[in-house]
Amino acid sequence: MKDTIMTLPSPDAARPVGYHIDAPAENLLFSVFRCWMAGYATGDAACWDIAWEGLAREMPEENAKPLFGEFHHFVRTLRATADTEIGWRPAACRALCRDECLVLAMVDAAQRDDRAQLLHAASHLLKSDGLHRALDATTALAKALARVGLFIAPVSPCALDTMTRMKPPSATAH
User: Fold this and answer.
1) Cα of 152 vs its chain's centroid, Å
2) Which domain of life is it from (predicted)?
3) Where in the chain are the domains?
4) Model pTM?
5) I want to staple 142 with a disulfide (CB 3.0 to 4.6 A). Which of 40, 71, 74, 111 is the partner?
């Protein structure tokens, strides 16, 4: 056994499920995204109130209002155009599931105007007949985040490749 050489994955390949969550933009993205997902899953509008409170705590109300609307549009559109139910984790969870990693890659690509990466990530999460609406909603959210100074750290091609090879969830992870 000691003669066996063990190779570790490259740092980029190991990143997709955790390295972004502590960054301010990513933290806000997923705390609000998860609250919107929870609200739709449970039918409890209190989840959306929590999403609003998170935004209002982080920025002036005049910035939070349009961003809140973009999150609503983004989540509603993703849910309507997804191949299957989108996986997500509870708001307090520090790790991202596969579907959240794809959402991260989509928003990052939209902020950088990388249409190829945006389409690549979206194609693993959404139905082809709903891609146009979902890409528009992703771009609108990405621009709204940028307008308030929130920029997603780039997702490397290696990390995106790792995400797309992960097995899709059989059910939401909440």
Assistant:
1) 10
2) Bacteria
3) 11-165
4) 0.83
5) 111
